[in-house]
Amino acid sequence: MMGRKTKSQLARRSGYLLLPIIALLWPLRGVDPGIIAILSTGVVLYCLFQAPTWCCATTRKGQFCRNNANGILLGCRLRQHKWQKLKMAFREQALSEAGRRMLSDLSGKAASLSAIAGTVSAGAATVTLLVK
User: Fold this and answer.
1) pLDDT at residue 103 greater than cutoff 80
2) What is the 3-state secondary structure (H, E, C) of 60-127?
3) Among 23, 51, 62, 100, which one is most buried in terms of CB atoms within 10 A?
């Protein structure tokens, strides 16, 4: 029997379970591309706003914040870090810095690569849907 903590961690990482499901749906002939597009969009939204990652905002000492955060775009519990991460996503100069920070640990790499895979899958499913 799973404990409360295990169930909570499993629920928090459940968005990653959509990727293998999407990969299994692509080769099937009878699956509507709209369903794949919706599931892929769900993966992207999960990675951007819910996936467990480190904050990686800049602290006053010039180091990366190691607090837990939700998603690639959101910072930790500190209000300034939330705004700092959102601003980094939309400024050209800070975009490469944000990418380097996000790819500095395993959870950030998993969220980033899953978001990229979901975006590619959603785009391909949309094109397939439009061509049909």
Assistant:
1) no
2) CCCCECCCEEECCCCCCCCHHHHHHHHHHHHCHHHHHHHHHHHCCCHHHHHHHHHHHHHHHHHHHHHH
3) 51
Q: Integer distance in angstroms from the first to the last C-alpha of the chain?
A: 47
Helix, coil or strand: residue 14: helix
Instruction: State the amino acid at position 120 in one-letter form.
Output: V
Averaged pLDDT score across all residues of the chain: 83
Verdict on whether the full-model pTM lies above 0.70: yes
d(CA 81, CA 103): 18
Contact 64/54 with Cβ under 8 angstroms?
yes
Provide the token pair at 92.
């050209």
